Fold this protein.
Amino acid sequence: MPTTTEQGKQPTQEQTPEKARAARKAFIAEGFDLVADTYDEVNGEFFRANGARLVAQAGLRPGDRVLDLGCGRGAVLFPAASAVGPDGYVAGLDLSPRMAHATAAQVAARGLRNVAVRVGDAEDPGFPAGSFEAVLAGLMIFITPDPEAVLRSARRVLTPGGRFAMSSFGSVDPRWTRPLDAALAFLENPLPASSPTQGARGGHPAFDTVESIASLLDACGFTEVRTVEERTVGIVESGDAWWRSQWATGRRIWLEQIPADRLPAARAAALAALESLRDADGILRNPTTLRYTTARRE
Ligand SMILES: C[S@@+](CC[C@H](N)C(=O)[O-])C[C@H]1O[C@@H](n2cnc3c(N)ncnc32)[C@H](O)[C@@H]1O
């Protein structure tokens, strides 16, 4: 196991870049293992809507072979399987064993013979070059320590003319980071400026703007790079519902590290911050901007 500090298995200063990347991946896998059972149940509506939008943007055709990177609980995988139909094929890959196993069980329960899910790293998906007409990545690349490596691998496994489609988060209303920040202030050690999991502090800076995403994909050899932004507004039913939703995403790994005796105060501080976000009509509207980026391999 890589050397880690006490605070969330963060890479230490002395680590080589390679070891630091391995430590971050272990941290990501552990974080998503923690939420594999509740991910879909608690926040599934949001992820499934995003997955369906991504599949629609990808322009899949019946018979296509598709690779879904970071398939999680199947928000992209299942609509992709419907789009390619029985003559197509969808392979799902996830770094988190619990995510991959739970989704593989769901695939079996649905009797889908043309879908396979396995544990693996998107940096090295383990398929021969030119295996897929489309590679998809729903809300995952910006989490990874080396997005360029993921994108180069995605390009390699695409057929000439193959399509790539990914989703990422657009700019965040800073007011809506306050409730989680209020809870994380109760951590024993302060959170690093850029957390290796999504959400708490955003992801890799290459995904900060539409322009930086385009530059990254250009640099990785993709053409016809296009991004559309869509804003959604989620209604937060109650403080309890919001708190529960935070424990069912990749952020849980941070919340888990708040000492048990501080957790009630952390929750109270978070919910007080949340209360201050109510609109004049008393409704909590949480805005999210999603970006859908499509590109092609020549
Ligand atoms: C926010 S979830 C998104 C899951 C799903 N695509 C969706 O849209 O709901 C990110 C997923 O990417 C996976 N992941 C992160 N880094 C990965 C990597 N290097 N290789 C494969 N999967 C990875 C995580 O384990 C997690 O299941």
